[in-house]
């Protein structure tokens, strides 16, 4: 699916989508590109968890998810964020289809580290035929909830899930749309980033905890076939670009 573009939209960014965002979707759609949006919902999940008296805890940017938090995560992603995104895409005269694990399993996974993270999964496979058929006629809007071998739902970090899906689909481009204009260092946007430089910046704590999973996901995608990854807050902005050639150096 070389004509596929995978866009990961963070929870903050879902509320900040501009007319230019939908204009770019139109341009890609008209050009015959297949578009898959993988959405998060972190801020919304944290907000509802706090309202319900649940503890909000993250380790290295990964949400620790007990059984009650998983219920909140499912309710927020599938009951609030995904319908809102589908509605916005449809309101822009584009065909949208919500893809989630409550009907046809789409993302398959298994526990990342149940003792440490609880009901958190890692991607093991995707229902590629189903996704490919959906993207032929619609812009897919997918929640990062995986089904494990026993049919149990697992919460998967949206950045990691989107990177794995982009890799498995053989996407030509993977875009991480976030609430900042790229990878920031001292209020400056890095136009590019090599893996070596990123590793150094992790060690020096120059990159925020929330950005680390995004960068790690980006390099995972590049190492496994995706040609280009962009981290930005606007589809029309250059942001931080990561290319296969930047895996070394």
Automatic annotation (TrEMBL):
Cellular component, GO annotation: cytoplasm
Domain of life: Bacteria
GO molecular function annotations of the record: acetylglutamate kinase activity; ATP binding
Site annotation Transition state stabilizer: residues: 8, 214
Gene label: argB
EC numbers: 2.7.2.8
A Gene Ontology BP annotation from the UniProt entry: L-arginine biosynthetic process via ornithine
Cited InterPro entries: AceGlu_kinase-like_sf, AcgluKinase_fam, ArgB, Asp/Glu/Uridylate_kinase
Lineage: Bacteria, Bacillati, Bacillota, Bacilli, Lactobacillales
TM annotation in the entry: none
Pathway: Amino-acid biosynthesis; L-arginine biosynthesis; N(2)-acetyl-L-ornithine from L-glutamate: step 2/4
Family: Belongs to the acetylglutamate kinase family. ArgB subfamily.
A Pfam family: AA_kinase
Species annotation: Lentilactobacillus farraginis DSM 18382 = JCM 14108
Domain (Aspartate/glutamate/uridylate kinase) ranges: 4-233
EC top class named in words: transferase
Principal place of residence: cytoplasm
Name of the protein in question: Acetylglutamate kinase
């Amino acid at each position: 699916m070389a004509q596929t573009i995978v866009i990961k939209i963070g929870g903050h960014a879902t509320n900040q989508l501009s007319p230019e965002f939908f204009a770019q979707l139109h341009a890609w759609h008209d050009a015959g590109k297949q578009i898959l949006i993988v959405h998060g919902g972190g801020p919304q999940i944290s907000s509802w968890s706090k309202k319900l008296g649940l503890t909000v805890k993250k380790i290295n940017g990964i949400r620790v998810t007990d059984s009650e938090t998983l219920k909140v995560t499912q309710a927020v992603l599938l009951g609030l964020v995904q319908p809102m995104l589908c509605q916005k895409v449809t309101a822009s005269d584009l065909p949208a289809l919500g893809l989630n694990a409550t009907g046809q399993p789409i993302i398959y996974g298994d526990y990342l580290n149940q003792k440490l993270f609880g009901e958190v999964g890692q991607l093991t496979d995707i229902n590629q035929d189903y996704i490919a058929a959906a993207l032929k006629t619609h812009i897919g809007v997918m929640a990062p909830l995986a089904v494990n071998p026993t049919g149990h739902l697992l919460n998967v970090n949206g950045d990691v899930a989107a990177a794995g899906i982009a890799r498995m689909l053989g996407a030509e481009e993977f875009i991480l749309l976030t609430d900042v204009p790229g990878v920031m260092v001292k209020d400056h946007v890095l136009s590019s980033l090599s893996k070596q430089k990123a590793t150094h910046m992790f060690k020096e704590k120059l990159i925020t905890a929330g950005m680390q999973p995004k960068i790690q996901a980006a390099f995972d995608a590049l190492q496994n076939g995706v040609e280009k990854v962009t981290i930005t807050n606007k589809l029309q902005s250059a942001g931080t670009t990561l290319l296969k050639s930047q895996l070394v150096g």
